[in-house]
Specification:
2 copies of one chain form a homodimer. Chain A has about 130 residues and is mainly α. The first copy, chain A, has 5 helices and 2 strands; from the N terminus they run H-H-H-H-E-E-H. In chain A, helix 1 crosses helix 5, helix 2 crosses helix 4 and helix 3 packs across helix 4. The longest helix of chain A is centred in the C-terminal third of the chain and has 19 residues. Chains A and B meet through helix 1, helix 2 and helix 5 of A and helix 1, helix 2 and helix 5 of B. Chain A binds a DNA duplex (30 and 30 nucleotides) through helix 4.
Chain lengths: ~130, ~130
DNA sequence: TAAAATCGGTTCGGTTGCGTAACGAAAGGC
DNA sequence: GCCTTTCGTTACGCAACCGAACCGATTTTA
């Protein structure tokens, strides 16, 4: 079911959830790392380094490093593909699911709080 | 007006908007930089280094460096406060407003596309 | 089976970001 | 006038990340 957000609400939602995440003491994931994690958990498997690299337009080494980091956090696991042993499949973990579940709650809470308290005025920057 | 998102929709929304932003050729802003930018543009002024530091729980030097980066991108401008010349006020710019406006459009588009195509199953990671 | 292609990882030099600590400038207290 | 406090920035050493190039392992092609 689609959800319709105007610009003010979209930015307010994003700000509130992102700020909550930044303020918190959870790990500091970059936008790339987060987009990889979300892709792995919300898109149908299998997920490979090459597939993630192409779908997110991120270089392979960057994907590999991001998986190192996500793996070290316990949010993701690598597994060699038995049918093509060159390939690696990225798998989900309970810890990663819990992390994303909590993050989803922050987004939901931000959506619940939407009230257009401080409108975004695209035309009122200083004078530069 | 509040918006109610379940976990699947919240993560799908976030993934789609974030991935679009990562894929694009726009600047690579960290979560901190983005949260600062959003705070400056959606919260009532004035915005000071100290204020941002406290409200986002980020060290003052980190705020200062993020403002360097955002300023060099033209998304934000510093201005000395005439009443307290120690203080710096962070001001919005047209370029920053345009950037956030486009980003808001990506979020809105992600919300419009919500259809629960690939449900998030918190309990189906491998076996780790 | 030999050669080419594919996959993921590592190495390399360079860039960016971090927190602690110290700094100069400005304001406030006395 | 001083001494202290406050504000933002800079210096420093360190960790994380980047893309290009290269590598070994594996699969595919011929």
């Amino acid at each position: 079911m689609p959800i319709y957000l105007n610009q003010d609400d979209a930015l307010a939602l994003w700000r509130e959830a992102l700020s909550a995440s930044v303020r918190g003491d959870g790990p500091d994931l970059s936008a790339r790392q987060m987009s990889i994690l979300l892709t792995v958990y919300t898109q149908p498997p299998p997920h490979t380094v090459r597939g993630l690299s192409e779908s997110l337009n991120i270089s392979k080494p960057a994907i590999s490093r991001a998986l190192d980091r996500l793996g070290q956090l316990g949010y993701v696991r690598r597994r060699r593909d038995d049918y093509d042993r060159r390939s690696v499949q990225v798998q989900r973990t309970v810890k990663g699911a819990v992390f994303l579940s909590e993050f989803a709650d922050q987004i939901s809470a931000a959506g619940r709080d939407l009230d257009s308290p401080t409108p975004f005025e695209a035309g009122t920057p200083g004078d530069g």
